[in-house]
Amino acid sequence: MSCCCNKAEEASIMATYGSNSFSNAVMRERLPKSIFKELLAVQAGEKELTLEVAEVVAAAMRDWALERGATHYSHWFQPLTGLTAEKHDSFIAPTGDGRVLMEFSGKELIKGEPDASSFPSGGLRATFEARGYTAWDTSSPAFLKEDGSGVTLCIPTAFIGYHGHALDKKVPLLKSMVALNKQAMRVLRALGNTSSKRVVATVGPEQEYFLVDKSYYEQRPDLILTGRTVFGSMPAKGQEMEDHYFGAMKDRVLSFMGELNRELWKVGVDAKTQHNEVAPNQFEIAPIFSTTNVATDGNQLTMETIRRVASRHGMVALLHEKPFAGVNGSGKHNNWSMSTDDGQNLLEPGENPETNARFLLFTTAVLEAVDTWSTLLRASAASVGNDHRLGANEAPPAIISAFMGSQLTELLESIADDKTYAAKAGEKMHLGVTALPKLPKDLSDRNRTSPFAFTGNKFEFRMVGSSQSIAGPNVVINTIVADVLSKVADRLEKAKDKNAEIQKFIKESYGKHRRIVFNGNGYSDEWVKEAERRGLPNIRTTVEALAEYAKPKAVELFERHAVLSKEELESRTHIYFEGYSKQINIEAGVMIEMAKRSIFPAASDFAAGLAGAAAALASIGAVSSPQEKRAKKIAEILAELCDETEKLEKALAEAQGIEDAHAQAKAYRDKVFAQMGVVREKGDKLEMLVARDAWPFPSYEELLFSL
Ligand code: ADP
Ligand code: MG
Q1: Which of 344, 458, 459, 477 to mutate to test the pocket of ligand 1 (most atoms within 8 A of CB)?
Q2: Confidence of residue 442 (pLDDT cuts 50, 70, 90)
Q3: pTM for this model (two decimals)
């Protein structure tokens, strides 16, 4: 772990921390007091943004950016591709007499009009009105991006169609935060809280990724075009030894991480921990948590920065969920909780009966939400890349369950069953109607196989893919929890005896939803059977999972909380199906190309060489040489490779011809993707039969153990 080792370094970190972030601290310094106050109210959703305020902020932002060498500004947004997009405009405004001014108006800050006709809209925008607009998100700080092209002021924005449809990931995210705030506040007020003003969802995403040497990467068309290897046979040394996990890091990686941290700190992303992951050359970085929205932007920035900094160190960062077959994939752990503006974590067990009752109430509500809407949670983590992990015998399983730890589970069970709870210490706790027990301090026993695990004062949603935006999963978590909390609020607002009502809710809700709690090994075959017995859904692929978004029950949920409309959900689902098909289309295309133009000639030449050697050996009297045997074996598998590649080409052509997006995605999954597995097997067999030097691509060994 690299940390600050001396005073000079400490001072330099403190000086550069946040230096590229137009944070509230900077605004407090640079804005007139009244304007800053007004902006805080806008951020809190208490006031509408006025053009006057925007003008003043824009001027301060411009000055700050120009002082730091910026020449351009950009509305930074998150289209449905899952990446970030930006269009750069320069600050230059010609005066007409041969000079220029550096200008940036309130209008330019508030609203941008990117020429965004090529971003997916799923039919929400016909091309004749293709322009959407971007709108400043005051709740996420602007930042400076430094790269080869200079310094750019990036303004986090939402991307909206002209008829008000959300075309991005941020709009529903902000709306889901509003919904959660509204319902959680209703519950808090009903509980007698008069001091908190807001509840925000807090998120800390842990990001996994692989690093590979750039020179090897550049020789792999599959990595370049798809982010994963479509061929490649496992090295003799895989991850069996588990010696990489938390092992000592190599100098090259350490210097990369040092620079990565500094770059992130500059833009105000609090990168906090880093370590080796389970697989060779796999790493993780985690920030300090923040609000859902800031955390989402921060994670997008983190992914971009990991890529950029890796490149400076002669490496390429792979954010794909499964770059290497047979080696652990990468995910993102979405740590989630709810906090009040005055700093109370609603999922934190407290010191006294009241806070414990509140904790149990909110925790039970989360469990109810997870059970009721597990299919949506599953959908939120669905992607082509993630299909290689979820439901494919790897962490975590595709079945949603929640880990609560033994103590908390026993406690909840005892409430549901009207039994006396015996605390671990042996001390009996009686559950009266007026007070819940004081909870044991350490509730955070760990379970690494659970997709939704309680970890002491937050839940950790572990299904999210490493390359995904965390916006989608958090939209779902915020909305489903808001939905259950709205029902809790309805009950509590009417109840005369609040404590009795809390008890009643916990008892009923947990009693009904306890099937979602599972503390055992989520990877075991027994769990798959047990989950089926409990009636828990097991959605194995993205194609099935995505369909959940458009089901009437889901549409009603999102509309009920004004997060997404039916039209928006349908267009999104359409876009995601298309994205799924496109990705497999590219992967299959690369595979065919590699098989036909690289593997075939290489293996064929190598076999011919062997045959030549065999003939030469025969001429001096050798009978049935190993060269001849090997050449025959290669020729045999090469013939199979050709046949199977042809089948893949056919399947691909058929899938390409399908009009309906859902049907097309199914064909890509069942015909194209399935056939890719067969072709791969042939290619990987050949790799083991052809000399190292004669194989046209760097091996897994080189990719995984070379740093
Ligand atoms: P782990 O043992 O899983 O590494 P950590 O305590 O280091 O647990 O936290 C992992 C992530 O969870 C970090 O990004 C951290 O900021 C985040 N986190 C901690 N508390 C909260 C919270 N209340 N809400 C959301 N995220 C949180
Ligand atoms: Mg974790």
Answers
A1: 458
A2: low
A3: 0.93
